[in-house]
UniProtKB/TrEMBL annotation:
Residues 38-259 form the Gfo/Idh/MocA-like oxidoreductase C-terminal domain. It comes from Rotaria sordida. This is Gfo/Idh/MocA-like oxidoreductase C-terminal domain-containing protein. The lineage of its organism: Eukaryota, Metazoa, Spiralia, Gnathifera, Rotifera. It comes from the Eukaryota.
Amino acid sequence: MATKIEHCKRIVTVCQEHNVFLAVCHVLRYLPVVKKIKQLIDNNVIGKLVSIQHIEGVGFWSFAHAYVRGNWHNERESSFSLLTKCCHDLDLIQYWMQPRRCTYVSSFGKLTHFTKENKPHGASERCLTCSVEQTCPYSAKKLYLDIPNRGFPVSVVVPDIEDGEDWNSIRTKVTKALETGPYGKCVYGNCDNDVVDQQVVLLNFDDGSTATMQMVAFTQHSWRRTSRLFGTHGELTWRGENTIEHYDFLTQTRTIYDETDLSPGGIMTSGHADADFFAMDSFIRAVASDRSDLLCTGPQDSLTSHILAFAAERARRENRVCSISEMM
């Protein structure tokens, strides 16, 4: 919504005053598998939901690309990484927990690894001239040059790739960009980065239920979310794909729910595991039919998710438990 809490609140106020349809692109709520998890919770399939454990594995190279060298590396230029990367995740927790309301938040984390103190001996300011580049997993050469690629993330480094352009031409452009631009810099102290690379958030809800959300840069897979939802009679596990595993305590059996889906008309979709399509489809149908109830991520719900992020960051910075009421 915005990078300051007062701006988020103002957006919601203006939308309400002028009866404007607004849907924030917390697109994961629109995924069939995410909706199925909510349905299972509401149908008491696992009894009373008492706790959620959620992990957002950013991926070692992805974090270096976006949050050390890239657009979201510095709070002054964008915002803190919990907001820019994980407002989706806090929104998921809020969605699954509804109608419960979060009351208190605490959080811990820091910029652990991508600092000048961790710069290897002999490393230079840029990967292409670095004597220890071959021993570095965050090498820009490995990420952008060693494997021919015209798509992401190379297309971010060189956005003017033409259709049909051969790899030799693209490689020349990429090499020049790495020699002069931000994506060729050493990740250890040369990128003016200050956002945290690992953080954990602890949330307490008004009925005593709890949740944890962990963001960590140092994972094998990129953008891999894992969720475990613990109920009094069972457990749900979601590994960021289209299936949900349900374990029933009474029968001690496992059931797999497969929510693999096609968009209407049988057209395969893409973008955030197809969530982008479902979000846009919902928004268009809501506007066309003048039905705001078709929006899963309207202004008030999205404001609440953002408040959780701002509260968690305040708790982390001030090393205390933050009451949600003080953020309202």
